[in-house]
Structures are given as structure tokens and as C-alpha cells.
Write a structure and sequence with these properties.
- It contains eight helices and 18 strands.
- The protein is globular and about 80 Å long.
- 44% of the residues are buried.
Length: 358
């Protein structure tokens, strides 16, 4: 049986455009919806959150989180991306899979858990700007929340439990040369200066490989140099996409790069580190008892900004995200709601000992 309330809310969210940094109307909708269920909704920018009744600082606190924003529609949609269309066993619409289904399912899981005695405090948060790792999203919201001891992050994983997630660091690199006329033996070609660095990124292997996430992956994805065909370029810039595993911090990787690469290296950010769920955590034990598959996720989420233990799990398929004619199956929502309830109801959560948010 398809659960009608989460599905109805998802259809409303699809019909309310919420591209990153433009989530205001969707946040309004969620705020009204939460208050209509008898809870107090709090708001910071386009982030919306609520807390379960009877908050007790002596108890650990569980956060249920997913994001409210979507990417912009890609080319190739054969339907209006902002019109929810239910065809057969699929609900089409932008954000249906990433991550609207997780958002509405976790919200209704919150309603279910909050109405029953739990050994933990409960917080639900819908964060903004996740798709752009924006400053106005989780990075800002996290300072407003109480101390969190564990978080469930809703993303499309097919309801498999991601107990590790790759991090991200983007580097802008610059090699310098000296301009000269291409017809004469003049100048110092910055492209040639950059080539050994590009080759190092292509061939270097970090020695520590993760059983969950594999190796650190580095890819040169953009390169720019020169002004015209007869001028030896004096500057060559290139961009590197680095996906870290949980065995290295981004700062460690950056230092290794600077020790080996003969050019300027500037990270856009080092804060999107890889994350890992402690495998001895009670949630992992319960998931294993339920026969749930554990895996390492190659995609980034708001987990990377959480300085406390967390795990990623939600309905849908990551392969559908950011694609034309994105969809979710309503039965996936029903299955997710049942799974979240079984996974979280009465769970004994270990208090986190992580340092405070930087």
C-alpha cells in the first residue's frame, strides 16, 4: 500500500521550484506543513527544522536530515520538471529522487518516532544549498542545532546503509613561464611547465586504500593557457577534482600534492572531508540484524559538514539523480518509511565524543 501523506507532500514540493539558493517557497511549504502537524518549526534562511517533545539534555540526540534544494533542470526533460506526473509505478519530477523522497519520508518518520517514547531526543532538519555546498545550508544551520550524537542523512541509496562517504577537494593549479614569440627560440612555455604536474596527478597513487571507498581519486578536469597561436604562454592553469577516502583528511592530501607538484596549488576548500560511520555503532548493529547491505558511497552529501557520527540512507537510486525525467517509485517511499521505523524505533544511541563544530 502506498503511503498517501508523504507522496502528497512530495508532489507539492516538486511543484514548488527549489533550485539551490532559491528554496524560499519550498521552505515556506515545509514550515506550514510541520506546524500543521502540531510541531514548532524553526527557520534560518531557507533551512527548516523542528524538535520532538520533551527534549532532555541528559539524553543523546538523533538528527534526521535531508536537503530541500535541487539542481537546475538538465536538458532532455520530456515533461515539465516542476509538474509532478504519476505514470504507472513512477512519479516524475525534479527532486523526486534527489532528495525529495528522502526528505518527506524522514519527516514522516520523525512524526512517527516523536509520538512514541524514545531513548533519545529527536530533531528533523531540512537543509538548503546542499547541491552547491553553500555557506547558507548545513554549514550555517549546524550552529543552531543542539548537540547531535548521531545523524541519519537522507539521500538515494536504495535503502542500503552507506557507512562511509568520499570527500571532495577542488584544486586550482598554476604553472608560470615566460612569454615569447613562437617563431623564435624565446620564452619559457608554461604549458610544458604544467605537463609534469598533470602527469603526476594522473599517475600518483596514495598508498592507503579503503575497503569501503577504494583509493583516493584525482582527475585533472580543466586546463587553460595561451592567448594566441604565435605567443608562447607565460601562464597555464588547470583544475583538479580529488575524491578522498576516509583514511586521509583533505589537509593531508593537500600537503602531499604540494610536496610533489612544481606549481602553485590553491584549494577552493578543504572542509568537505570523507566520513565514516563507526562499525560498532548500535545503528550499524541493528542494520546488520535487519539484513541491510552496508557500502561506501562515492557521492558527497551534507554528511561532509557534520562533526559527529552519521550514516546515509534513503529511497531511490543515485543513478537517477541530476538526470532528465528524474523519478521515484511510490512503493520505494512506503518501503523506506517502514525501514526507517524498524531501524530507529527504540534505538539506543551512543553519545558522541566528537569535538564541537569548528
Amino acid at each position: 500500500m502506498i503511503t498517501p501523506m508523504p507522496l502528497s507532500l512530495l508532489q507539492q514540493l516538486i511543484a514548488t521550484p527549489s533550485v539551490s539558493r532559491e528554496e524560499g517557497k519550498a521552505a515556506d511549504l515545509l514550515e506550514r506543513y510541520i506546524e500543521g502537524e502540531g510541531y514548532t518549526a524553526s527557520r534560518l534562511g531557507n533551512n527548516v527544522w523542528t524538535m520532538g517533545p520533551g527534549f532532555d539534555p541528559a539524553r543523546p540526540t538523533l538528527l534526521l536530515n535531508s536537503h530541500i534544494d535541487t539542481v537546475k533542470p538538465v536538458a532532455g526533460w520530456t515533461r515539465d520538471p516542476f509538474t509532478p506526473v504519476l505514470e504507472g509505478d513512477r512519479l516524475y519530477g525534479l527532486g523526486s529522487n534527489d532528495a525529495g523522497a528522502s526528505l518527506v519520508t524522514l519527516l514522516h518518520t520523525f512524526f512517527y518516532l516523536a509520538a512514541r517514547p524514545q531513548p533519545y531526543n529527536l530533531v528533523f532538519a531540512a537543509s538548503a544549498e546542499e547541491e552547491v555546498s553553500g555557506e547558507g545550508g548545513m554549514r550555517r544551520l549546524i550552529h543552531e542545532l543542539p548537540k547531535i550524537d548521531f545523524a541519519i542523512v537522507g539521500e538515494p541509496t536504495g535503502m542500503r546503509l552507506a557507512v562511509a562517504e568520499k570527500g571532495l577537494m577542488v584544486l586550482d593549479c598554476t604553472a608560470h613561464g615566460r612569454a615569447g614569440h613562437a617563431a623564435r627560440n624565446e620564452g619559457d612555455n608554461a604549458i610544458y611547465r604544467a605537463m609534469p604536474a598533470v602527469e603526476w596527478f594522473r599517475t600518483y597513487e596514495f598508498p592507503r586504500r579503503s575497503p569501503l571507498l577504494g583509493a583516493v581519486k584525482m582527475s585533472v578536469t580543466l586546463i587553460q593557457a595561451g592567448t594566441q597561436h604565435n605567443v608562447v604562454p607565460d601562464r597555464c592553469t588547470f583544475t583538479v577534482d580529488i575524491r578522498s577516502n576516509e583514511l586521509y583528511s583533505n589537509e593531508e592530501i593537500l600537503q602531499t600534492v604540494r610536496d610533489h607538484v612544481p606549481c602553485e596549488v590553491q584549494p577552493r576548500s578543504t572542509r568537505l572531508n570523507s566520513s565514516r560511520t563507526p562499525l560498532d555503532h548500535p545503528l550499524v548493529h541493528r542494520a546488520q540484524a535487519m539484513g541491510m547491505e552496508l557500502f561506501g558511497s562515492p557521492t558527497l552529501s551534507d554528511q561532509s559538514l557534520m562533526p559527529f557520527p552519521s550514516a546515509k540512507i534513503g529511497p531511490g537510486d543515485s543513478a537517477r539523480s541530476h538526470t532528465a525525467d528524474e523519478y521515484i517509485r511510490p512503493e520505494e517511499i512506503t518501503h523506506a518509511l517502514d525501514t526507517y521505523k524498524q531501524l530507529l524505533d527504540g534505538l539506543e544511541i551512543t553519545p558522541a565524543t566528537t569535538p564541537p563544530t569548528p
